Amino acid sequence: MRPKGLRNLRTVQQANRRNQIGSREQMVAELARLEHEKARLQREVEVWRQNQRRTETQLEHVEARLAQLARAIDLTGAESVPANRDNEAESRTWLGMTLEY
């Protein structure tokens, strides 16, 4: 846990008190808490790995599609590129519409 201010900083006395072995009940409670935290972290790591595998698969599909499109563009050549770029600029302009209530 990251300190959020001076009030949350642990003093030397608090650190020593934390490191002392308490009663058996306290040790068993801490053991159970740490085992629970370990299990939670292991589940989280597994979820991350599944997400990583899914993302890698999606990336492979995108790369395959990019390669396919690049080959298709190379096959068509420069024939499909319009010579007049002014029409392309005109097609991007916004058209207005007036509404009356």
Describe the structure in your own words.
This protein is mainly alpha-helical and 101 residues long. It has a domain at 10-75. It has three helices and no strands. It has helices at residues 12-19, 24-76, 86-91.
Q: Nearest-angstrom radius of gyration?
A: 31 Å
The SSE string, one letter per element, is HHH
Stretches where pLDDT falls below 50 for ≥5 residues?
A: none
Q: How many strand units?
A: 0
Compact overview of the structure:
The chain has 101 residues and is mainly alpha-helical.
Summarize the SSE layout with pairings.
Layout: H1 12-19, H2 24-76, H3 86-91
What would the keywords be for this entry?
mainly alpha; 3 helices; 101 residues; 0% strand
